[in-house]
Amino acid sequence: MERLRFFRICDEYPILDVAYHHFATLHYNAMNSTTIRSNSKPPYLLGLLCLIPFVGAFVGLGLLLYGLLKYKDKWLSIIGAGGIVWTIIIYSTLFYAGTHASVFKKGFEDISQMQLNSLLKNIEFYKLVHGQYPDSLQQLLEEDKLAPINDAAQGMNTKGNSYYNYHKVGGKYWLFSSGQDGIPNTKDDLFPQVTITDSSKIGLINHR
Prior knowledge:
- The protein is mainly α.
- It folds into two domains: 2-97, no CATH class; 102-176.
- 52% of the residues lie in helices and 5% in strands.
- It has helices at 2-12, 14-39, 55-70, 74-100, 102-130; strands at residues 165-169, 172-176.
- Strands 1-2 form a two-stranded antiparallel ribbon.
- Helix 3 runs antiparallel to helix 4.
């Protein structure tokens, strides 16, 4: 009865009729939009990107926020958190392997040995150009920005810059790596692999 009276009033006042249909349309659109959002499925497949280390951490963070704030979905939140944890596990494992696994240690030692042999050539070339040996390894960077002056044998144990040991003694010099322990003059030290004789023109002091 009340509804019939309302429609009669709308007939008498056209502006009320227009307003009624306008608000009715807005209400329908709002309800329809809510239905579409409620039927949309959380992007679970994006969780596959979480398997990619580093990238997966950012994707996981996004999925976690989507799961908590937008979709209110427990499983999407779990997938996102899992992506973050997965990246942490991968990089923690790599760090541990780099500092403890013997195969990784051997790899760093091999790299250090090659760099020492190359660094010897850099030092001798510096003398050829400047007429004297450098006072420090950092001076080699003036001629070659890529000169390998950082001790690779210490692997991931290195904190900051850890240069190869270089000491200029008159017209000659010492050059060696402190090895895995990072302590010079111990049994794991590495030296350039070069044969030095009395007639050799290089200034490297032969270790004995």
